[in-house]
Amino acid sequence: xxxxxxxLAARVGGTLEGDATLPVRGVAGISEARSxxxxxxxxxxxxDWLPRTAAAAVIVGPDCPPTxxxxxRTRDPYEAFRRAVLLFYGNRRPVPPGVHPSAQLGADVALGADVAxxxxxxxxxxxxxxxxxxxxxxxxxxxxxxxxxDCLVYPHVVIREETELGDGVILHAGAVIGDDGxxxxxxxxxxxxxxxxxxxxxxxxxxxxxxxxIDRATLGVTRVRRGTRIDNLVQIGHNVDVxxxxxLCAQVGIAGSTKIGDRVTLGGQAGLVHYIEIGDDVxxxxxxxxxxxxxxxxxxxxxxxxxxxxxxxxYAALRRLPEALRELRRLGERVARLExxxxxxxxxxxxx
Amino acid sequence: xxxxxxxLAARVGGTLEGDATLPVRGVAGISEARSxxxxxxxxxxxxDWLPRTAAAAVIVGPDCPPTxxxxxRTRDPYEAFRRAVLLFYGNRRPVPPGVHPSAQLGADVALGADVAxxxxxxxxxxxxxxxxxxxxxxxxxxxxxxxxxDCLVYPHVVIREETELGDGVILHAGAVIGDDGxxxxxxxxxxxxxxxxxxxxxxxxxxxxxxxxIDRATLGVTRVRRGTRIDNLVQIGHNVDVxxxxxLCAQVGIAGSTKIGDRVTLGGQAGLVHYIEIGDDVxxxxxxxxxxxxxxxxxxxxxxxxxxxxxxxxYAALRRLPEALRELRRLGERVARLExxxxxxxxxxxxx
Amino acid sequence: xxxxxxxLAARVGGTLEGDATLPVRGVAGISEARSxxxxxxxxxxxxDWLPRTAAAAVIVGPDCPPTxxxxxRTRDPYEAFRRAVLLFYGNRRPVPPGVHPSAQLGADVALGADVAxxxxxxxxxxxxxxxxxxxxxxxxxxxxxxxxxDCLVYPHVVIREETELGDGVILHAGAVIGDDGxxxxxxxxxxxxxxxxxxxxxxxxxxxxxxxxIDRATLGVTRVRRGTRIDNLVQIGHNVDVxxxxxLCAQVGIAGSTKIGDRVTLGGQAGLVHYIEIGDDVxxxxxxxxxxxxxxxxxxxxxxxxxxxxxxxxYAALRRLPEALRELRRLGERVARLExxxxxxxxxxxxx
Lengths: 352, 352, 352
Fold this sequence. Notes:
The structure is a homotrimer.
Chain A: E1 3-4, H1 5-12, E2 15-17, E3 23-24, E4 26-27, E5 37-41, E6 57-60, E7 71-73, H2 77-89, E8 98-99, E9 104-105, E10 110-111, E11 116-117, E12 122-123, E13 128-129, E14 134-135, E15 140-141, E16 146-147, E17 152-153, E18 158-159, E19 164-165, E20 170-171, E21 176-179, E22 184-187, E23 190-193, E24 199-202, E25 207-208, E26 213-215, E27 221-224, E28 229-230, E29 235-236, E30 241-242, E31 247-248, E32 253-254, E33 259-260, E34 265-266, E35 271-272, E36 277-278, E37 283-284, E38 289-290, E39 299-301, E40 306-307, H3 308-342
Parallel strand pairs in A: 4-5, 5-6, 6-7, 8-11, 9-12, 10-13, 11-14, 12-15, 13-16, 14-17, 15-18, 16-19, 17-20, 18-21, 19-24, 20-25, 21-26, 24-27, 25-28, 26-29, 27-30, 28-31, 29-32, 30-33, 31-34, 32-35, 33-36, 34-37, 35-38, 37-39
Antiparallel strand pairs in A: 1-3, 2-7, 22-23, 39-40
């Protein structure tokens, strides 16, 4: 695709300063861009690249000083650049519409308009795939699954029976949606399997990373709400409820029945025990170990997770602890000397 | 499936109190049940749902007071409910018996009676699949693998060559059994690969979660013993030996050659270093970092893992540490004043 | 394969002491070896197995005392054993050369000499596979991918479009290379997806474990350099650069844009935040949480990661902290008594 700078500026909502006729064929980082790329400058620490970049034009913010480079000036250069990327690459679709002959579709599968089903895909009976959705090679979809419109299901995703996906959902390679929750009943040291007969609902505009797992409910529903982004290798237990527009970084683990509020951020490798409630807008630091409910708006980190400002002081103090213990011992010796010299005596019981 | 309450009570080992003729068609949680579901009440905190649930009947324990609702009274309501779930859903089999035409079987593969092989499955030469076992779409089984009776192998499971599975084993989607251990020999900063020529044995009634990995032994065997339940995204290194009826929660990692006893519980995200031994009945807390062997019957948690009661006191004390360091400094000032006023002098060396 | 001890000694670079004519058919651990196996003794704690092993011969080091067992004496018995293992098992190739008829190859795929493509493999248009490379069942390779010579791509690996692999690369089952980085732009609480249009380069002789994920760059390149070994379930974020001959143990997570030096070792479950730099030869302990850059040659551990010797003292001190807080309280009482008895008074403000 080729587009003039003039048209690009209009499409990303910016004002062109410079040669409007130059053609653009792609986007790139400011240090790697070539003469037919557009790039952007949102972070001042890359400012010295502005005169040096080979790019045809640079998307800049309102504060960027005048320059002899061709720029597209906009209120939000990062968002404008995101639009430029979508413009050039957003319509790439790795599988052509239609059903590949090697795909295996069960009875009464219903495909919407413009659906693309890649090679080696398996879809179980009675499942329904919405308009414009792409199912990539090797994905396996169980029976009675419902997938909305314009979803992207990457290779080797497994969607177990009865799962429901909204519109615009993206499932990355190897993600497993709706596998059994980890439920059993221990009697006489043996763990009898509790069949997991609930299901999973993934609401619209959710993205789930590669090799992440969302367990089906024991009974009822495990739910990820609208707009939430989940990174790779994340584990979400049975009956968990994740709110809207949350961010779950890589390798997070959430144990069963825990409830996560809206706009929550969970840092990488954070772990949450079962049956707790995380309020709206909570932020959990990377590797945080959350052992009880957290009220909305809080920031917590560390193990066990404490309010973030306290945690910072705790861990700073911990670094000084070896020296403090020596100081405590020396102080004890000084006090004992004072006691001897003033004729005071430790009460019986002191020092136990 | 439809069954009368009278028959259901008999099948789950309970006594019916109320209308024995009502039909039941499924099971559900007490708050979600509909008029043809059976539900259960095992946890007192749901007791106020008893008069309100729409369920046809409620499975209750011996302590539940008399009620005008129809109940099935039993010594162990959770176990009775588990049996009810198995009754309604336990025989669902997602792949019909037989071999799907798209499956690829190597030479001399031996299939037992009533085996079900789904679409796109690949089975290597000389592998043997026991009676009643189900291999779901896209699973890949290597050469010389032995799988017992009544196993469930979910989509996209990979079982590498020479692995051995007992009876009733469940492998969830994307699990990898028998991949190479992480072994190499470092000479002149380069890491020469040590071929991993051992194998994996999974004993009967073991369940392994989605996207978990069990590495084959460098030499010899990596083993998971009878009745153990392993959750999702768990890593088990080469030559590890996991005992019977253990519980490994999600994202646990066990490094090479470590030995885990019977009935051990490892909390989510716990990590164990290599070459240690965890005794029978040990419990490791979530995120625990176990750096040395743990005697049987202990409970440990934290990093590095300490006895659980000590760990609780440690982390409670850590929260008070910033204030304690201030107190220590103030105490030092008070002692210095006392020393000045009594004419005592710090010995040379104090305060260094 | 059968080989005489004489020839085996020559092939592994050792000197035979004993019966040179015995045939060897395999390798095994010293406690499990049978009469036609060769084994090795590198670790003194297995020395008492030397007279007892059933092996045909034992590879030993220069310090091993004379024995009536047949031995192959060598400067580096572990390396010699590694060569023996490679000799017996190194050429096993689980897929025969050629393209399985169930594989699906896109337009203009270029296959080198002696390439093996297994059942159900999917390869996208214009991808190139180097001589001697093996692609195992169910692997999915996107468009415009380049794979070098003599690579092993295990079942269900997913390699997304435009990824580049060097020679001798090993990708274990379920690994995902080149999936989207975790990038979005948050405006009004909604997280707009930032298309990830960079790619991944895996240099020669890199090994990546099962179900690990290497994200493509947002723009530019995510790179893993020559000779690095990565274990299972590892997460590497977008635009990360991992140096040469590094070791990343299982379940490690590296956030976006972080740079890892050469010969770095990251212990299991270690986590690194984004935008930091880890110098050459750094060692990070298992479960370490690295929150800032680490200079070359350092060893760090704990959360937040501290120099390893300090961390050891910190955690040893933490175990003594509950008692130290009690001691601090008692010391405060003794000082208060001294102050009363000497007529000294705490200054106002003390004890707050």
